[in-house]
Amino acid sequence: xxxxEIKEILTTLENVEFQLENGTFVPEHFHVTEVGTVTxxxxxxxxxxxxxxxxxxxxxxxxDFEHRLKPAKLLNIIKLSEEKLGxxxxxxxxxxxxxxxxxxxxxxxxxxxxxxxxxxxxxxQEACGIPAAKANVENSKLSSPSNSSCAPxxxxx
Length: 157
Hints:
Elements: H1 3-10, E1 18-20, E2 30-43, E3 49-61, H2 71-85, E4 92-97, E5 101-108, E6 113-117, H3 125-128
Parallel strand pairs: 1-6, 3-4
Antiparallel strand pairs: 2-3, 4-5, 5-6
């Protein structure tokens, strides 16, 4: 989700709620303690230099159990970060401490924001010798040979 998308969604909500993909909710007394830009410059295993940039939200739970972040307050934090830091309309990444600090993509299910698990991937699979994924074909769609023997070059085996 891009920054412009969350800003649009926030104008329609009464409350700001986050949940993990497994359905567990972030405690409702969370704070958004940081909004910023995170830039990662790296070289992949194939030697290509890459740069990733994301808007970063950090969620934190405090002991002030009566705290509730309202959409207007989060919109104000975002506006301030855009003005003071020049934050652009990039994809949002959320940091949230569960058992350890996790980084999540952000989605929306129509009512709550969903912290989507990130996964790793090789960005230069051709350099690592990882074969391209083969298409799965149902056995019933394979043609059967007209006779029971297999001739070289016939493609039956």
